[in-house]
Design goal:
114 residues, mainly beta, 50% strand
Length: 114
Amino acid sequence: QVRFVESGGGLVQAGESLRLSCATSGSSLNAYAVAWYRQAPGSQRELVASITSSGSTNYADSVKGRFAISRDNGKKTVYLQMNTLKPEDTAVYFCNFRWSIGSWGQGTQVTVSS
């Protein structure tokens, strides 16, 4: 079983950047697509970005051109570079498999002030 531990969140002003990290333990991620999700207060969890085992990426329209997902299979870590942050990006960010969702970690809070 894979355990996901997210970090890197914080309080920033609109227009600034953050880089989130997702360290994993347990089974290797190499063969699997992984993704970042987020959940804003009062909203459902939504898919933000995903990356396949071969490195192909996909993004929600709301973050396209601003966010970049990457992975380091050797370090068993997934990253989310977030640029030009907006107040509507405020949420708790989680990582998990893109398909066959596993157990959720605690997430990392991102708060963007206007």
